[in-house]
Amino acid sequence: MAKLVSRDDFFMTSEDRLYYTLLTLSGEFTVKVLLDVRRELFDMMEISMSNIIFDLQKCDHMDSSAIGLLANLHKTLTKENFILGILSPSNKIMPVLDSTRLLNLIPLFQSHKEVEEYFD
Predict the structure, then answer these.
(1) What CATH number does the domain located at 2-119 have?
(2) How far apart are CA 90 and CA 95, in angstroms?
(3) If you ran DSSP here, which 8-state letter would residue 102 be given?
(4) Would you say 21 and 44 are in contact if contact means Cβ atoms under 8 Å apart?
(5) Measured between alpha carbons, how far is 56 from 28 in angstroms, rounded to an integer?
(6) H or E element: which one contains 118?
(7) What per-residue confidence (pLDDT) applies to 3?
(8) Cα 107 vs. chain centroid, distance in angstroms?
(9) Which of helix, strand or coil describes residue 86?
(10) For the sheet containing 10-16, what is the strand order?
(11) Rounded CA gap, 17 and 36, in Å?
(12) pLDDT along the chain (120 residues), means of 10
């Protein structure tokens, strides 16, 4: 597991799986870290485009800039026939995702097993 972004109140790690890349976010996903996250994502996609699953179980806060990044990433991946998915959003994040209707576009998974079954 590689640590891609690390700040006082935010961490993002990456783990390559068979059919997707798992990005685990911890802390506050806000404009303060957006440029670092965006740079890492697009650097990663230049090397190898793949399905991306964001594990948001330990994510405490997400602002509109983070929602915008997810929406843009979804659009980019969809054009290339890949998906962006969200895994286990925390109780703090789920209302944010619901209010933006982002989950109308992006699949929501409740467990790692569910993600694996989706790609089988």
Answers:
(1) 3.30.750.24
(2) 9
(3) G
(4) yes
(5) 10
(6) helix 112-119
(7) 65
(8) 11
(9) strand
(10) 2-7, 10-16, 20-29, 51-62, 84-87, 108-109
(11) 23
(12) 78 93 96 93 88 96 95 95 97 94 94 94
